[in-house]
């Protein structure tokens, strides 16, 4: 009896095994034929799986008839009906077609996972790598400046008027490369020339507070540069360019005799797959005579991305990204005067720097058996600045950064993200003395999608200290002394009102801890001093918006129109403020106070300068509009990007610091508009772009007259008051480009920037570049 039962169990087990069947296949892009990684395969019984990095999938299927759905963000859904017999294996190879609508572009930065642009709950802009190539962009800020609602004023990024000019210290916009920060550990400022323009997949710009996922410095938004990894086919791109600066329109500004200043550069990029190894190598060289006296730059950069997809451990990939640059440059800060000296450097403001920039980023990504994603990203970021003529201002800063993230995708299109971040900054400098900073944070976000509704909410808690001084928590303007952790919250939703019509609303909190430079810098600026402020506190804020994104397909055009109304508020806003300060205690002095007046009289210029202080509250409201489209114009293929932004930047303090307009935040504009149009005919493409900014309303009063007040005495920027009275009426700058495809693989491009040779000014004393023309030859294969 036992023997019979034993054989019966064996036969039963064999029967079950015989009924198991497997569905396998490979999924590729219909146009490029490249394998698609991470495609979701869902059966009618809610079972399923995803493709691996080779585009291959394998799923256990019960016998019978099934409907199999293939989902991939940015691609049209595909369905197949299959009938499987017990013990039978079925192969289904699928080609997915990319969605043509620009509103379906894929982005990552908003939620740290792939989403359609239409599903994102905040305003977001995307710059493709082709835009950088077509416009001969050699510094990334040139491309950022063409994005509606985003401005870069003398290297300081600002989104919707959230930032003014901060003298090269601190940033309310967090700059990332592949989700990792590249702001320096000392000044917390962006180094645009370090970003690899030769290796860009796309640039994603989040507008509004984004501190829940990204932490400090994301108070005003995020700029995330995503580098490229190779496809199945090797790719090589080489471009060389040479340009010349023309004379300015105003004859008195011409400072150079004889030959015109030139700039020349080379970009190289190569990517390929070698078995399971992904390899990307890039290089860049650039030399610029500069359009202003004693302003020039020489730099060389090399970078490499390596990723290995493990053969033995399914779902495991690891690698390292690196970028190394050497730079030798003279920066321009102060003009000599507003007339013949507008392009001539004030010798007291000259800064000659020889620097090294380096980052190395080991990373690991693992998808477990339940398709949960584990990601560990690390970065060592090293900046070294050496001043040959003033070695007492040499500095070195190192940032060690680590972010672990766990992400789970549920069957019903829910995504849970949990993360832990830690960062350590080490600064060695005579300017700031030696300091270190520590950052620790945990964060969580849940993204939930049900039919046409998307909801996203998240929390973050962050601990920060410089040396042994811990930052205190601030909630709704109130400091909680016993809580050294800053909490922030975000919540947003989007709803598909109709086909290609998406309504969204969001609220997000943000914060920015002071940089080491803002707290401890002690140096001179021409006649003035820059004073430290060890008591400087973190600034906090929030942003809210209501927006609508309307996709359209009219005749041969498809694209979208995005309109958003926004409201931003800040507390304890940090700004460098001109005034009198005690050289010993660094306390701000009041000339109307007799005791303070004595200190001012005893110290003279030694008590005059700038200091980063918490100036109080601010409110910025406005409207942001963008239109993006692709189609035909007069029967010719064309692309369009255009936008307009209105901001109302109000200083809410009752006792504003001295400025030319006490109610308006400094270094802001009411109106800005930008547009770019490109048309193609056979092998020829013609493009033009426009940038408009209204007048800069408010600046530091110290720049417009005598340092001690009155009509006489030394001036920091001689002639600026008269210059602004004549020229501060807003400006328009037009660029033009013409390209010809010599062969299938090579292209010749002529670019003319500021074609009308307009004279315009960014920050005070900084007249923009005159007309310049460049010739670029690119070869892709």
What secondary-structure arrangement, pairings included, does this model have?
Layout: H1 2-19, E1 21-29, E2 40-43, E3 48-50, E4 56-61, E5 64-71, E6 78-84, E7 89-91, E8 94-96, E9 106-107, E10 115-116, E11 124-128, H2 129-134, H3 140-144, E12 150-153, E13 156-159, E14 173-177, E15 180-181, E16 202-207, H4 211-214, E17 221-226, E18 235-245, E19 262-274, E20 277-288, E21 296-309, E22 316-331, E23 351-367, E24 373-386, E25 395-409, E26 414-429, E27 435-450, E28 453-466, E29 469-470, E30 473-475, E31 478-480, E32 485-498, E33 501-512, H5 516-520, E34 523-525, E35 528-531, E36 539-554, E37 557-581, E38 588-589, H6 594-603, E39 608-633, E40 636-651, E41 671-681, E42 684-693, H7 720-727, E43 731-741, E44 746-753, E45 772-780
Parallel strand pairs: 1-7, 1-8, 14-17, 35-39
Antiparallel strand pairs: 1-4, 2-3, 2-5, 5-6, 9-10, 11-16, 12-13, 14-15, 16-17, 18-19, 18-45, 19-20, 20-21, 21-22, 22-23, 23-24, 24-25, 25-26, 26-27, 27-28, 28-29, 28-32, 30-31, 32-33, 33-36, 34-35, 36-37, 37-38, 37-39, 39-40, 40-41, 41-42, 42-43, 43-44, 44-45
